[in-house]
Design a protein that fits this description.
CATH topology of the largest domain: Rossmann fold
Protein name: Penicillin-binding protein activator
CATH architecture of the largest domain: 3-Layer(aba) Sandwich
Oligomer: single chain
Keywords: Amino-acid transport, Transport
Strand order of the largest sheet: 7-6-8-9-10-13-14
InterPro entries: BCAA_transport, LpoA, Peripla_BP_I
Shape: elongated
CATH superfamily of the largest domain: Response regulator
Strand content: 5-15%
Organism: Acetobacter conturbans
Number of domains: 2
Length: 474
C-alpha cells in the first residue's frame, strides 16, 4: 500500500494534543450503539520497525497509550466497553513507575480510522491498542509503521500481522493448530476437514493443512461445502467414502485380496466371474445364490431396508467449521453417513463455546478456547466498577492494556521497545498466557474443551495418548 498520508509536524502535534484529548473525552460521554463485530476484507501494509520514526530515529512522545476504537455508531457500545476494560488494566500500578496516560480516539468519527490514527500520532502516543476490525487495521498500518508506533490490533485476521502490527485476536490458525496438536497426542493420524465455503472456513482449512505439515502428518483432505442440506449430505458422503463402505458392509465388494500373486489373482477373478454367470443362467439351481434385489443403500435413500453398520471412514479426525442451522445439517449428515464419534474425533471453532449446551448431538467433539477460570478475577473487577458482566471482547482490551502497562513499567517509563514486547517469557492475561512474535503474531496457550452428551463442556488438560478408540492403537 502506498504511503499517502501526511503527518503533522512535531510543533503542530504539541499545539493540538490538548484539544484532541478534550475531544476524545467529550465524545466518550455521548456514546450508544449495538455491539456487533464482523470480520472484514484484508488489506496490505508496508514494512518497518516499531519504536522508530520514518527517519530511523526514536518516535516522539512515546509514553502515552492510544486507544483506537469505535466510540459511536453501530459498534459504539462495544468500543466503549473495551475502553473501560483497557483503562481498568492500565490503571494498575506496576512497581515504582506510575501508569501511562491514556488517549482515546474514535474510529467512527468524522475522519474515520485513518484520522483517529493521525490524531494518536499527533498526541504523541507511543503505542496504539486497536483498531477493532481487519479492514481498519489494514488502513492504519502504514501510518503506524511510518511513525514508528507499535499497534496491538483486536482483529483475528492473521493476514494483517507484520513487524510492528500485532494481531491480538484469537485466530482460527491458533485454534486449529492447538486442536491438531492435541489430536496427534491422542493418536490421531488421518485428518480431514468439512468446512463452509466462507473466509472463516478457508482460514481453518489452510490452517489444518499447514498444521499437519508442521507436525509431520499426512496431507489432509479438505472439502468446502455449499449451504443447502442436500449438498451438505451429498458432499459429506463423498468425503467419508460412504458408497464404498456401504458396498463392503453389504457384501458386494468381491474380488481377490490385493496381496495375492498376479497369476493367482487373475485365476480367482476369472473363476468368480464364471461362477456368477452360471448362477445367473440357472436360477432354479438349488445351489445358486440369488442376486441382491436392491443396490447398496445411500444416505439419502427412502428404502425401509435396514442400513448395515459401516466401517470407519478414511479419517480419524474431522475438522468442522459451521454454526447455526448449517451445523444442524452437518450433524444430521454425520449420522446419515455413519461418521461416529467412537471412531472419529470431531473438532470445531471456538465459536461453539457460545452454544455448547446445545451440541449434545456431537458429544466428544473438541474446540480450542481460553480457559474461563483465568477470567474470573477480571469479571469481578469489571462488574464491581460497572455493575455488569463484561462482553468477551472486553477481555482482549484488558489483556492489551495489561501488555502495554507491563512493557511501559519494564522500560522504566521510557516507552514500548520491541525487545520487551516480544520477550520470550511473554505475559499473563485473562485469556491465558501469551507471547508476541516479531512477525506480528500473538501466540496463546488455549485449552481443549470437550462437548458432553448432556450439554455443556469439560476442559481437557492433557489428551490421553493411544486412545483405544483409534484404530490400530493400544
Amino acid at each position: 500500500m502506498d504511503l499517502t498520508c501526511r503527518f503533522l509536524s512535531r510543533e503542530a502535534a504539541h499545539k493540538t494534543r490538548g484539544a484532541l484529548r478534550h475531544t476524545s473525552r467529550r465524545a466518550a460521554r455521548h456514546l450508544s450503539g449495538v455491539a456487533l463485530l464482523a470480520l472484514a476484507a484484508c488489506s496490505s501494509g508496508g514494512t518497518g520497525a516499531p519504536g522508530t520514526a520514518a527517519n530511523g530515529g526514536p518516535a516522539t512522545g512515546a509514553r502515552n497509550v492510544g486507544l483506537l476504537l469505535p466510540l459511536s455508531g453501530a459498534n459504539g457500545a462495544l468500543g466503549n466497553e473495551m475502553v473501560v476494560a483497557a483503562k481498568l488494566a492500565l490503571a494498575k500500578q506496576s512497581g515504582t513507575v506510575a501508569p501511562p496516560q491514556v488517549d482515546v480516539h474514535d474510529t467512527s468519527g468524522a475522519t474515520g480510522t485513518t484520522g483517529a490514527m493521525q490524531a494518536a500520532i499527533a498526541a504523541g502516543d507511543g503505542i496504539v491498542l486497536g483498531p477493532l476490525t481487519s479492514a481498519d487495521t489494514g488502513l492504519i498500518a502504514p501510518q503506524a509503521i511510518q511513525a514508528g508506533v507499535p499497534v496491538v490490533a483486536f482483529t483475528s485476521d492473521l493476514a494483517q500481522a507484520r513487524s510492528g502490527v500485532w494481531v491480538f485476536g484469537i485466530t482460527p490458525q491458533q485454534q486449529v493448530a492447538r486442536l491438531v496438536e492435541a489430536a496427534r497426542i491422542e493418536g490421531r493420524r488421518q485428518f480431514a476437514a468439512f468446512l463452509p465455503d466462507t473466509p472463516l472456513g478457508r482460514a481453518m482449512g489452510d490452517a489444518l493443512i499447514r498444521s499437519c505439515q508442521n507436525m509431520g502428518l499426512a496431507t489432509p483432505q479438505v472439502v468446502y461445502h455449499q449451504t443447502s442440506s442436500e449438498a451438505i449430505r451429498s458432499e459429506l458422503a463423498t468425503l467419508s467414502a460412504y458408497d464404498s463402505r456401504s458396498a463392503t458392509a453389504s457384501g458386494q465388494a468381491t474380488g481377490p485380496a490385493p496381496d495375492l500373486p498376479a497369476d493367482l489373482a487373475a485365476a480367482l477373478s476369472s473363476a468368480s466371474k464364471a461362477s456368477t454367470a452360471a448362477d445367473a443362467q440357472s436360477p432354479t439351481d438349488p445351489k445358486a445364490v440369488p442376486p441382491p434385489s436392491t443396490s447398496a443403500a445411500s444416505p439419502a435413500s427412502t428404502s425401509t431396508t435396514t442400513t448395515p453398520t459401516l466401517s470407519a471412514p478414511p479419517f480419524d479426525a474431522l475438522l468442522l467449521g459451521d454454526t447455526g442451522l448449517a451445523l444442524k445439517d452437518v450433524i444430521d449428515a454425520l449420522k446419515a453417513n455413519q461418521v461416529r464419534s467412537t471412531q472419529v474425533r470431531l473438532m470445531g471453532p471456538g465459536l461453539w463455546a457460545a452454544f455448547a449446551g446445545k451440541l449434545g448431538g456431537i458429544a466428544g467433539a473438541w474446540y480450542a478456547a481460553p480457559d474461563p477460570a483465568a477470567r474470573t478475577a477480571f469479571v469481578q473487577q469489571f462488574a464491581a466498577q460497572n455493575h455488569r458482566v463484561p462482553k468477551p471482547l472486553a477481555d482482549l482490551a484488558y489483556d492489551a492494556g495489561t501488555l502495554a502497562g507491563s512493557v511501559y513499567a519494564a522500560s522504566g517509563g521510557n516507552g514500548y521497545p520491541t525487545d520487551i514486547m516480544t520477550r520470550k517469557e511473554g505475559f499473563s492475561g485473562v485469556d491465558g498466557a501469551f507471547t508476541l512474535s516479531e512477525d506480528g503474531r500473538t501466540i496463546r496457550k488455549l485449552g481443549i474443551f470437550e462437548i458432553q452428551s448432556g450439554g455443556g463442556t469439560r476442559i481437557i488438560t492433557t489428551p490421553v495418548p493411544k486412545n483405544p478408540l483409534v484404530p490400530g492403537s493400544s
